[in-house]
Amino acid sequence: MRSLALLAAAAVMVASPVIASAALPCPPEVKEARTLLTAKTATAAKATQPSKSQAAARGQDVQAPRNVTKGQANALANARRLVNEAETACKDADAQRALANAHAAMELLKYVP
Question: Which domain holds residue 94?
Answer without folding.
Answer: 26-49+60-113
